[in-house]
Amino acid sequence: MPNVVDDIVAEVAALCRENRDGAVADYIPELASVPADEFALCIATTDGYVYESGSARTEFTIQSISKPFTYGLALADNGPAAVAAKVDVEPSGEPFNEISLDPVTERPRNPMINAGAITSAALIHGADVAERFERIRRCYSRYAGRELTMNDAVYLSEAKTGHRNRAIGHMLRSFGIVTGNPDDAVDLYFRQCSIDVTCRDLALMAATMANNGINPVTHERALATEQIERVLSVMTTCGMYDAAGDWVARVGLPAKSGVGGGVLAVLPGQIGIAVYSPRLDAHGNSVRGVQACSELSKRLELHFMHVT
Ligand code: GLN
Question: Does the Cβ of 64 fall within 6 Å of ligand 1?
Answer without folding.
Answer: yes
